[in-house]
Known about the structure:
Elements: E1 8-10, E2 16-19, E3 30-33, H1 36-44, H2 51-68, H3 73-84, H4 91-105, H5 112-148, E4 153-158, H6 175-182, E5 186-192, H7 199-211, E6 214-218, H8 223-228, E7 234-237, E8 241-243, E9 248-251, H9 254-263, E10 268-271, E11 277-278, H10 284-287, H11 296-299, E12 300-304, E13 310-314, E14 327-330, E15 337-340, E16 343-345, H12 349-356
Parallel strand pairs: 4-5, 4-7, 5-6, 7-10, 8-11, 10-15
Antiparallel strand pairs: 1-2, 2-3, 8-9, 9-14, 12-13, 15-16
This protein binds 5-S-methyl-1-O-phosphono-5-thio-D-ribulose (MRU).
Amino acid sequence: MQGRYRALWLNEEGYLEVIDQRFLPFEKRTLIIKSAQQCARAIKNMTVRGAGVIGNTAAFGVYLAARQSSGKIEEVRKEAKNIRESRPTAVNLMWAVDRMLEVAEKCTASDMAERLKKEAVAICDEDVVRCRSIGKTGADIFEKIMKEKNRNSINILTHCNAGWLAIVDDGSALAPIYELHRRGVDVHVWVDETRPRNQGANLTAWELSEAGIKHTVIADNTGGHLMQHGMVDVCITGADRVSLSGDVANKIGTYLKALAAKDNKVPFYVALPASTFDFSIEDGLKQIPIETRSEDEVKFIRGRTKSGSLEEVQIVPDGSRCANYGFDVTPARLITGLITERGVCEAKKEAIAEMFGDIL
Ligand code: MRU
């Protein structure tokens, strides 16, 4: 790979090509995906990850299902169901599959594959526009924070990876950071490593390095200390599913950062496109399904040895059990604002309903 890629794209043969995120930042590999089943597998094993990009992969998966089918809608529905169930928390996945199926239901056997291809591409292209808009709104807010503090630099803390690897093409949480950088603002990012899969250390740090943005990777436990000492001006994360009342499911550990932010009067923003809302859910804590993953992701850690090989090593005693919850829910009361493509919105049912009334 060279230069700036999207996280996924259609290649010349009409197959899906993705950046294999399991090997970053050490190896830059891509994977060609030729079937709906392979799409489901790539989502499940986190070849691709991040709410937006798993939605995009799912959309292309439905297209590939049509392409490999005999044109019968039942075959496409079956594969779509399998893709829809590949991960449970990020609602963009279900949203994208449902949108694709809605189109599929209106197609004939002969035009289905082509129309679904166009729809999947359209979802990706719309994400690009949404991210740009989130970036502009977020950057305006952050510039205001700097102005109020009479400063011309800003320290931003983020958790997990919500950059262009997670949602095409500027990300959600990183979009305002990329925009500030484009505006020439002196921005520095505290990057939570984000155990157990280290999306912060591996992916966010890589994205920011590639873009030439100042950043420092910190152990997950560090944010509270930094906030107590005035070293964080604002926190921003992405989201995997947001309830109608503004509760936010995001990568495990987000809640603890929001608590520390509240205690230290540090603004805590969440950036998301409208496709991350689940308007059918009011109580995020009770109703958002939280993914649990293999204990091995906690038990082992992967990295590059001094001799340059990629290896996995065990960090837990043989006899210890591990628990691996992928996400947590940050209650709306801890969130300063939701930065969306339509502008910033209070994390409250009334405000969300007012801004998104037409798609509720
Ligand atoms: O398990 P992951 O890596 O898919 O989790 C990703 C996150 O939690 C991101 O913060 C989230 O998807 C927001 S970015 C669109």
